[in-house]
């Protein structure tokens, strides 16, 4: 058996095309163009690239994008003032503060200062609570992307045993809630879980969100399982070149799994597509429009 590749890149491109058409309809029917404000503090070069890419992706999907850049030396009070302005700006439907923030700024306080209905990253405690209690809210983009890929690739999620390795607030925990909502039986593992290989071998769906290159070996995978690899790890080869690998030993997984997301080109592209989806959803809900009808 060779695992089928779950084409996150292709799926994300289709999602973005569909969103472009929905954005056109939203404008025609309701005169609304969803707006995404991305806030960047400091000089982190990777963050500058991410912010530029998010702005470009928003424009390509027919959304408005607003970039706000603050200096590395900006105070928390300055950032909170900007967020208060964005919260009350009707053109802004989604607010994303690019992380990590400079050390002097308390990220938790910043996330809490975003209007939960504009919190397109889905990190606000109110959105975490809404997800946990089954209320409509904004769901973190990476787990939402994983769920969409699984829904596309697994005919029946109900009753499947999903093992998620990783319990972060941005990936593992929200994905556990989403898969519970999809009627999977969910086990969340972490660094203190004993005998992780045996646990992984019980998974019909195995999600790796660990942040350690190729920690999940082929022998840990149940034959026929569906594997979602969230990890993005930069490794240096013997010849000094850099390579991006996931948390799963991909070549070992290929002959065992039924399907697997590649890295890159799997979950990564879905994250940005889901950010745009969340902005669209937020724009609709703020105006009492059901996003499913657009
Ligand atoms: P965190 O570091 O916040 O969490 C990692 C989790 O993995 C923790 O729960 C930790 O356990 C667990 N863990 C660490 N080592 C082991 C181990 N040896 N065995 C079992 N569990 C272990 O990471 P994130 O959730 O933020 O990200 C995870 C990965 O996903 C990273 O590679 C990141 O780059 C990638 N990522 C990719 C995105 C995308 O768009 N594709 C978006 C976000 C993240 P404990 O809680 O006990 O410490």
Polypeptide structure, described:
Strand 9 (233-236) and strand 10 (242-245) form a beta hairpin. The protein has two domains: 31-117, Rossmann fold (3-Layer(aba) Sandwich); 141-269, NAD(P)-binding Rossmann-like Domain (Rossmann fold, 3-Layer(aba) Sandwich), CATH 3.40.50. The protein contains ten helices and eleven strands. By secondary structure, it is an alpha/beta fold. It starts with a strand and ends in an 8-residue tail after the last helix. The structure holds NADPH dihydro-nicotinamide-adenine-dinucleotide phosphate (NDP). Residues 142, 165-168, 170-172, 189-192, 196, 209-212, 215, 230-233, 267-268, 271 line the site of NADPH dihydro-nicotinamide-adenine-dinucleotide phosphate. NADPH dihydro-nicotinamide-adenine-dinucleotide phosphate binds next to helix 10.
The fraction of residues in strands falls at 15-25%
Please give the share of residues in helix.
Answer: 25-40%
Helix-strand topology string: EHEHEHEHHHEHEHEEEEHEH
Number of strands: 11
Please state the second-level CATH architecture of the largest domain: 3-Layer(aba) Sandwich
Oligomer: single chain
**Gyration radius, to the nearest Å?**
19 Å
Largest pleated sheet: 6 strands, parallel
Q: Quickly count the helices.
A: 10
Assign the structural class, choosing from mainly alpha, mainly beta, alpha/beta, alpha+beta, or little secondary structure.
alpha/beta
**Average pLDDT:** 97
Q: Say what the CATH topology of the largest domain is.
A: Rossmann fold
The low-pLDDT segments are none
What binds here, in terms of ligands, is: NADPH dihydro-nicotinamide-adenine-dinucleotide phosphate
The overall number of domains is: 2
The order of strands across the largest sheet is 1-11-8-7-5-6
């Amino acid at each position: 058996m060779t695992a089928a590749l779950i084409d996150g890149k292709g799926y994300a491109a289709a999602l973005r095309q569909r969103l472009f058409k929905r954005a056109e309809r939203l404008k025609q029917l309701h005169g609304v163009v969803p707006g995404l404000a991305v806030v960047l503090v400091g000089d982190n070069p990777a963050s500058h690239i991410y912010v530029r890419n998010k702005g470009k992706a928003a424009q390509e999907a027919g959304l408005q994008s607003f970039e706000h850049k603050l200096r590395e030396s900006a105070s928390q009070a300055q950032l909170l003032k900007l967020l208060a302005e964005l919260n009350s700006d009707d053109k802004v439907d989604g607010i994303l503060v690019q992380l990590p923030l400079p050390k002097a700024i308390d990220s938790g306080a910043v996330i809490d200062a975003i209007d939960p209905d504009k919190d397109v990253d889905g990190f606000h405690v109110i959105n975490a609570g809404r997800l946990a209690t089954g209320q409509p809210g904004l769901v973190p983009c990476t787990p939402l992307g994983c769920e969409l890929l699984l829904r596309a690739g697994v005919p029946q999620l109900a009753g499947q045993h999903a093992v998620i390795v990783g319990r972060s607030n941005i990936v593992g925990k929200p994905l556990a809630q989403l898969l519970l909502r999809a009627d999977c039986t969910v086990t969340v593992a972490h660094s203190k879980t004993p005998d992780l290989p045996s646990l992984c071998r019980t998974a019909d769906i195995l999600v790796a969100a660990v942040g350690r290159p190729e920690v999940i070996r082929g022998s840990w995978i149940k034959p026929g399982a569906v594997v979602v690899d969230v990890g993005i790890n930069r490794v240096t080869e013997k010849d000094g070149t850099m390579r991006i690998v996931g948390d799963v030993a991909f070549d070992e997984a290929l002959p065992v799994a039924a399907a697997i997301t590649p890295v890159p080109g799997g979950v990564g592209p879905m994250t940005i597509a889901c950010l745009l989806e969340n902005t669209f959803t937020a724009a609709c809900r703020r105006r009492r429009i059901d996003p499913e009808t657009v």
